[in-house]
Amino acid sequence: MKRVRKAVFPVAGLGTRVLPATKTIPKEMLTVVDRPVLQHAVEEAREAGIEHFVFVTGRGKQTIEDHFDMSYELEDTLQKRGKLKEYEALMADLPAAGATSFTRQQAPLGLGHAVWCARDIVGDEPFAVILPDMITLPGARKTRCLAQCLDAYAKHGGNIIAVEEVPHEDTHIYGVVSVSQDFGATFQIGGMVEKPAKGTAPSNLIISGRYVLEPQIFDILEKIEKGAGGEIQLTDGMKKLSETQEFFGVRFDGRTCDTGSKLGFLMANVHFALERADMAPAFKAELKKLLGSL
Ligand code: UTP
Fold this sequence. Notes:
- This protein has 11 helices and 13 strands.
- It is of the alpha/beta class.
- It has one domain: Spore Coat Polysaccharide Biosynthesis Protein SpsA, Chain A, CATH 3.90.550.
- A hairpin with a 2-residue loop joins strand 2 and strand 3.
- The model has no long low-confidence stretch (mean pLDDT 94).
- The structure holds uridine 5'-triphosphate.
- The site of uridine 5'-triphosphate has 20 residues, from helix 5.
């Protein structure tokens, strides 16, 4: 079994659900507590042992590339002013030279198309996909979602999809999987469908934004027809791949926040602030005052 070294971050979407914030700022650069959403996702990948970060970007997303580069003037000023803690924190966050790649999707034709755009950079090896607008916090198993997916990959091989439960009446807006053999924290996937019509979903387990995929997915994505919403859907590609390869689901035991919606973005800030030892006490005190006045 090959090691999973690379993660693809599709960041070319338009972020229409969080307009007007995303008119000029990529939604992945909106801030949760004190860092861009995308940085939370990159930290999760780093913690899971990913070595190379592949960003599929689009027009107007240049700040993403700059964020993962040095900022000489800022760093020089911080050092000269003795702000060494801030300087060292920036340096610690910086990916190693050569550990990032950027490619462009050119037109937002769908998640499946965005992943396909990374084919030459990924090459012939298994890889992770992280939807960076979904950001995660550890649960009882103390690791974030991608680390749990990579554990499942080491155990089962094949292809891995992280899932979470939603109320049955909400399944029509997500990709949904069904369970064929259940092992508890993981399970063998029987089938999958993107945005099933109301009342037809095979379960309430939705695909939640972390994947480990074998490289054969690229040949499939190259040929696949447009699906739900007129977009090239990753779920349709995975469904085709599942005819010849196994897929396993991971029930992530932590919290996933969807920063791609306005309410989800607000709640992400609350949950992530409450997890920060340096902020939680003061933030909790403010929240208590606020809740008392509602
Ligand atoms: P979303 O559907 O959440 O992103 O895709 P979006 O299209 O930006 O959202 P709305 O509905 O307009 O608000 C999940 C991830 O896939 C990327 C997005 O950037 C996001 O990180 N994506 C989506 C692409 O890179 N390209 C696409 O064509 C579509």
